[in-house]
Amino acid sequence: MSENIRENHRVSGFSKFDKQARRRWLLDHFLPGHDSGDFAFFDATNPDLQEVVDNFSENTLGNFPLPFGVAPNFLINGKVYAVPMVIEESSVVAAASSAAKYWLTRGGFEAEVIATEKLGQLHFRWGGHPDRRAALFPELERRLRHVTSGITARMETRGGGVRGMQWKHLPAVNEQCYQLLVRFGTGDSMGANFINTVLEAYATEIELWSSDSEQLNARERDLEVVMAILSNHTPNCTVRTWVRCPIEQMNLAGSGVDAADFVRRFCFAVDIARQDPYRAVTHNKGIMNGIDAVVLATGNDFRAVESAAHAFAAEGGTYRSLSRCRVVDGIFHFELTVPLALGTVGGLTRLHPLADIALDMLGRPSAEELMCVAAATGLAQNFAALRSLVTTGIQRGHMRMHLQNILSSLEATVTERKAATGFFDGRTVSHHGVRQYLEKLRG
Ligand SMILES: CC(C)(COP(=O)([O-])OP(=O)([O-])OC[C@H]1O[C@@H](n2cnc3c(N)ncnc32)[C@H](O)[C@@H]1OP(=O)([O-])[O-])[C@@H](O)C(=O)NCCC(=O)NCCSC(=O)C[C@@](C)(O)CC(=O)[O-]
Ligand SMILES: NC(=O)C1=CN([C@@H]2O[C@H](COP(=O)(O)OP(=O)(O)OC[C@H]3O[C@@H](n4cnc5c(N)ncnc54)[C@H](O)[C@@H]3O)[C@@H](O)[C@H]2O)C=CC1
Question: Could you tell me the pTM of the whole model?
Fold first, then answer.
């Protein structure tokens, strides 16, 4: 590509273009051979709804659909749920459904929210001596709470608000680095915007305090706010979920695998993931298959959930599996503890029409109830994946589902699809094998 052409690929003011102009510019500069119908393929027929979707993010060109599915038969804390799941990967919904069905007749999933505290951080540079903090903090805290009382009042009526704060010294960054660590309750919201609003009001007030407090000497007036933002590390916003049943009931119908042998191999696999980070990352990916699908379906922030989960898995310095397994007195226990900062109000939860339906499907849960459902789906997913891994291997079930994608990529007709599905039932599926089969079929 010549310099000239590259120059033409740059653009100024793109964010001001309307959607048609954005599409046109992309077609002219980056997508020869396409037309604007390619972007419009999944546009909503209702223009008002399309506008809502366009406003979810920026520079939008079209909609990018993902399948919206459901895993029925989830018995969680004595209530049966049909769990909404949005995911692009084959066999995840099938695996969650299969594990839900398995546990439906074995007591189901139990789940309890351990804590729901979120954190926010205000970082600042301060010229005072660290030992002066104890004397200065009461006045500062009183002023910070006072200045945000209008913002926090309604959240307090929901049992949330500012739960406490600490003034920390971070000499590892540099001698003048300080952090205000604030603990929040955010009710049924994930709370990012609430927390950030409070913290930014604190940022203004702390600078004001440094300039007008009579308690401060000249050095102590040297204060500069660096940034104010929530922390996505939420080790005190966690949920625990578990399944348990006598080993003799852990039969796998039609597999020929003995229940005790299955449990022994299953626990062995979990123990490996407790110790070996390479295995733990894959193991936890399986858990997140389930959790992310529920998080996406309900319009929650999956990046926040992902980063918090992996930080939690690495607490203590070694990355470990989030789930653990044990057998006590002939009873199989399998459990998962995971941080989940979820909301059932705010963000996209009610704005996205399918997230709204997903929450209806769950019976308009509180944030705590949604934490229980998402965690149980993660544990179910983990159970199904491990059950396959230690018995048939993952490819049998996974590739059976993925077969449909391979057939789509090879543009199989309905008749070819039907024939191939029958042919590969019980046979090993591979892209090459399916291609060969279709070539033979097509003569
Ligand atoms: C795939 C299954 C469930 C098949 O398992 P199966 O026993 O052959 O299924 P089945 O045909 O006997 O059906 C039993 C039930 O499974 C569900 N089920 C079965 N098929 C479907 C389907 N088409 N659509 C929806 N649900 C399905 C459904 O609940 C069904 O009950 P029914 O509805 O008939 O009353 C099993 O092999 C399995 O659980 N495999 C694990 C798959 C998995 O974990 N996939 C994730 C991708 S791999 C990965 O990303 C993570 C991993 C594995 O690396 C993590 C790790 O290493 O730990
Ligand atoms: N680092 C991060 O994770 C960041 C995430 N975000 C985004 O912020 C959004 C989530 O922020 P939120 O503050 O949760 O959403 P939001 O800004 O839509 O606010 C939720 C609001 O709903 C109101 N509300 C009504 N009923 C409530 C109830 N029962 N409980 C609690 N609040 C109730 C409250 O005023 C609350 O502040 C997500 O879209 C996320 O992606 C934004 C900035 C940073």
Answer: 0.94
